[in-house]
């Protein structure tokens, strides 16, 4: 969230770990991390380095520099939340305090897996004769090495903090680089100088010259000689409030990853990393912060606040599939250990702990570990919940179209982790439907927080009275003869070769109404109008499928020209709305006024534009402030995040869809009854149903012609009747696709049967199916029309053991993969 000037002043004493000369205080009045919406001066600087291409030669192994230790998310503690809370952040991390935290972890949390002590900004205060950072003698009078040795002696690992670039005084000192005397620090920066970080503390290093890498190597080698186990690398761009590449720290990330890899030191990136570059972060780092700081910057009052937790849900709905062994989505500190400090209710604290666990996020607390209360200890030390986190299976939502959300993941043993999150404003009974998880059959359900078996359920189970901002967490274990459907984006599916998710290869499920005007009078009915190919849906701000995150209210009867005379509004920066739709375009329509400001617009998780809803004079009603019309026709999500101004308003959204009905309007006159016929643009087999009508009785399908029977229409009341045509889509509206012959998708399971379902399409050819390493069949995936969810391979009667199914592209322009399915014996 954007900090007030007062809060910024509170944090002005925090020391950013810039690489500055001995005796120079690395203090910046810009030290506090900005909230969503702040823009640094560096973002508009002249001479910014142009966008660098993604690397073709990768020196660091995929998954970042830490190696096998990053196969699971780490568990531990970070100092930053307490540095903010205490108000003396630059000195709070002294040796006495860090020693106390290490000892408290050893006694209370380490038996449960917590073993990392991460010291944030202000651990250093100068440099050595080679331009490398030196620890603060003031904070560590006994020597930083003594503190490191104490932490290691407790069986823990230690992390420290750095940022991109090189400081001005290091440049001016023109020092030799350790181990590379031919290199001087004065020759390291890009010329002319270019800012390297959000705060403008350091300058960009020229990594096109070997000396740039050698300098970072020298620092990493020094850290390794001390015994450092993790580096938190802050102010990484694109991200950290800047996504336009005027600040670009990707070269720094690659250089640090390369330098740390030989020492197996964990590299954690911060903050609010740009999802557009997720593959890059995954290549070079072991973790990446996906959002802004969790701290509320409430000195002496609270560590965090509920809005800083609730805003993570839509982010994770985009980011979840990017996490896995080697690299993890970082949600920041889990501050749930002390109710008198956390800033949340007990239910909210448990919801946060549940979210961190099911997201397989690094599980590190920011509390003062010497002051954990019993409830906080219970949250942090529940072994069954910790096991969910350490399984490394990031959960994802069944849907984000409401504030009562079911999140789930399929585990390696065929059990499911299921979390119910009530983000709404009232208590609620919440149901998990097994079919939504991909499960058909019965399952045992265990409550992980209560550590209690609830019994066996068939088809679904319901948790009663989930409190406001509360959560429930379950393990769902399918029983014998249950079948499991595994989507193409599940982490249990592995891909070899060049694959992409969607990329306009997908066909989403959708519906479209045929509006029939019913009359009862003499005179001919007017014919239906020919369809123009695109239709526009107006979605009012109170639509139940718009998800509002934060503190939103609805204002009605304003009489100011609002669509349907109402708006939704928020006064809190960082609050957001999101709406998922099927179509090829969308408009954000709102009011413009001098009380309003900027809004960040994201499409499918990518920042597209910052729009300004400020209007100096007067008021603009129903203004289209953002519009996009060139999206691939498919499933998309628009999200708007309040950035500035007193208010942010939502009036309506206009969604443009490719029409599937021709015409999409018709008339029926009871005085002269006649069947109504229309053409559908998709394969007739893709028409799942017309809601409420019986096929063969109320309507028929011949080729692409659908005929609504006059007998059905004659029973309808005079007026307009909307007949909802429902079309199938790919499972969960997505596929993985490849154009490369030899590319493969494989899946390992334990069961007695297996099947493969995918699309048929004109651009597809043949694929070979392997079972346990042997070619079983070559299947033809070509079709005259694009159709969805066709079962193209089945094997039954398998020995109830572990098997691997593998699909290999043989021919055709493309191969799509949708789902694997298997039966538990």
TrEMBL record:
Residues 30-67 are annotated as: Disordered. This is Alpha-galactosidase. Residues 30-43 have a biased composition (Low complexity). InterPro entries: Aldolase_TIM (IPR013785), Carbo-bd_X2 (IPR005102), GH (IPR017853), Glyco_hydro_27 (IPR002241), Glyco_hydro_b (IPR013780), Ig-like_fold (IPR013783), Ig_E-set (IPR014756), Melibiase_C (IPR041233). Residues 662-728 form the Carbohydrate binding X2 domain. The keyword Hydrolase applies. Keywords: Carbohydrate metabolism, Cellulose degradation, Disulfide bond, Glycosidase, Hydrolase, Polysaccharide degradation, Signal. Residues 403-476 form the Alpha galactosidase C-terminal domain. Gene3D superfamilies: Aldolase class I, Galactose-binding domain-like, Golgi alpha-mannosidase II, Immunoglobulins. It is an enzyme of class 3 (hydrolase). It catalyses: Hydrolysis of terminal, non-reducing alpha-D-galactose residues in alpha-D-galactosides, including galactose oligosaccharides, galactomannans and galactolipids. It holds the Pfam family CBM_X2. Its EC number is 3.2.1.22. The keyword Hydrolase applies. It comes from Kribbella yunnanensis.
